[in-house]
Amino acid sequence: MAAETGKGGAGLSEIQSEIFQAFATYVALLMLKMMVLSYFVISERILKGQFVVREDYEGFGDPQMSKEEIRRKTASRDLYIERIRRCHRNDLENIIPFVLVAVVYILFTNPTTESAILHIRIFAAARIFHTVAYLLPLPQPCRFLAFLVGSLATISMAIRVIYEGNF
Amino acid sequence: MAAETGKGGAGLSEIQSEIFQAFATYVALLMLKMMVLSYFVISERILKGQFVVREDYEGFGDPQMSKEEIRRKTASRDLYIERIRRCHRNDLENIIPFVLVAVVYILFTNPTTESAILHIRIFAAARIFHTVAYLLPLPQPCRFLAFLVGSLATISMAIRVIYEGNF
Amino acid sequence: MAAETGKGGAGLSEIQSEIFQAFATYVALLMLKMMVLSYFVISERILKGQFVVREDYEGFGDPQMSKEEIRRKTASRDLYIERIRRCHRNDLENIIPFVLVAVVYILFTNPTTESAILHIRIFAAARIFHTVAYLLPLPQPCRFLAFLVGSLATISMAIRVIYEGNF
User: Which of C4, C10, C101 is closest, CB to CB, to B28?
Assistant: First the structure.
């Protein structure tokens, strides 16, 4: 570990503690943002009566629906619900790797507070804008640029870790 | 970091070590529970001869199947396999954020052992019940309540982190 | 925590620091490998003009396309793009749990450097081979064995954590 305390073990340097303190808040914020999409899908499904498994129609849908209607409705897809689900999946594919890469970047490459916080803030802003661009939706290339900026922040940190790393 | 040791670096307090020791076991348990779903999908696919890519039909399916049959079978969907896959995706969307939020919650908000372990146990119980409710399936709102309880445990921790946090 | 420094707090032992240093590089590498799949999907979509939401056709597709054509093209699926997306999802389902389980395994079971690094290297090799086997594709059971080996590395670590754990 980069920040050895020199006593045979390793702790965090003051700079790392400072970075992690801000990082923690962004992690909580981004996870919350991502989880809100689950609730958005649920509320859309209930409002539109559009579910994907039988027991959801029985529990939340119109009790008069015939089996045939349920089968037809399950096979169809609501475009906006699929859009929220895609947004959610894109978050999973981008935010989780960001968090894991950021942790090893902060611990093992000894970044300055400024550099680390900059990566974290740019990523968070890009992903919040990505969600807005996906759900409104904004015309392309808004969503693409949001994805690109967030992705490059993570890649920049990952490359730094690999560059200083040993296999 | 909340648990500064006061020597310029930061270590874990005894309480945090105690919490993390229990947390570690639940992380391993929940990941194992989630990964078992991969094997469940694989065994269902082989038993039903229902795959999604050509080389799977060639390697695991009936060798006499015509190209036309393979195309038709790939386009169709087995409802129960899709159900397991949805259960697995729901786990990804909920368990991974829980683990990441719990780490920053334990490290940066100085929770009591009781409060932290309670959050972790409630979440684990809710997610195990969620899997049972999805796969049997149990009538709604069983699965919805399981999702809700697990989700609220994570949100409760995330809000605590944000409340004490700095941007 | 297994590696108590005996001063009321807990730090990392020298062995753990050594393991984490190598682990960090593999985390960055595996995340990078996973994220490259996003760019692969994007480039395939642009090359084939096959998108899933309306604004992508307007921003990146043929501007002369009629609404009817867009609707038809959105409903159809490109088999190779779906294959890359499945590969990406399989990575999410396997690599993220590996990283989280490996962290608690290194911190709480006091593995030897050899044993820990072996788990990490086997997993990384298996997942890189899995991606190659999925995207070329190689005949089965190549992809299945790659999944199996990676999955067993994670399960082996998880069981070790649970075995030594307390609830």
Answer: C101
Tokens for A142? 């808004």
DSSP chain B: -TTB-SSSSB-B-HHHHHHHHHHHHHHHHHHHHHHHHHHHHHHHHHHHT--SSHHHHHHHS-TT--HHHHHHHHHS--HHHHHHHHHHHHHHHHHHHHHHHHHHHHHHS---HHHHHHHHHHHHHHHHHHHHHHHTTPPTTHHHHHHHHHHHHHHHHHHHHHHH---
The pLDDT value recorded for residue B14 is 87
In angstroms, the CA C158 to CA C105 distance is 7
The answer to whether A83 contacts chain C (CB < 8 Å) is: yes
Cβ–Cβ of B22/C165 closer than 8 Å? yes
On whether any CB of chain A is under 8 Å from the CB of C140, the answer is no
C153, C98 in Cβ contact below 8 A? yes
> Given 3.40.50.300, 1.20.120.550, 3.30.200.20, 3.10.110.10, which CATH number is that of A20-40+77-165?
1.20.120.550
Which of A10, A104, A158 comes nearest C12 by C-beta? A10
Q: Please, what's the b/e burial string for C30-66 (b: 16 or more CB within 10 A of its CB; e: otherwise)? A: bbbbbbebbebbbebbeeeebbbbbbbbebebeeeee
Whether B142 shows a pLDDT value over 90: the answer reads yes
How confident is the model over A124-142, as pLDDT tens digits?
999 999 999 999 999 989 9
Is A43 within 8 Å of chain B by CB? no
- The count of other CB atoms within 10 Å of the CB of residue B70 is 18
Tell me which chain A residue has its CA closest to the CA of residue C28. A158
Q: How far is CA C101 from CA A167, C87, C108, in A?
A: 20, 21, 10
- Determine the distance in angstroms separating the CA of C80 from the nearest CA of chain B, rounded to an integer: 10
The chain C residue lying nearest B5, using CA atoms, is C9
Using the beta-carbon criterion (under 8 Å), do C5 and A10 form an inter-chain contact? no
- How many Å separate Cα C118 from the centre of its chain? 18
Put simply, whether A144 touches B (Cβ < 8 Å) is no
C92 part of contact set with chain A, CB < 8 Å: yes
Taking contacts as CB-CB distances below 8 angstroms, the residues of chain C near A108 are 20-21, 24
Is the pLDDT score of B9 beyond 90?
no
Looking at this predicted complex, what is its ipTM? 0.90
Alpha-carbon distance of C54 to B101, in angstroms, equals 35
Nearest CA in chain A to B3: A17
Of B60, B121, B27, whose CA–CA distance to C106 is shortest?
B27
Whether residue C19 lies within 8 A of chain B, CB to CB, comes out as no
Boundaries of every domain in chain B = 20-40+77-165
Which residues of A fall within a CB distance of 8 Å from B153?
none
CA angle A116, A30, B129 (to 5 degrees): 135
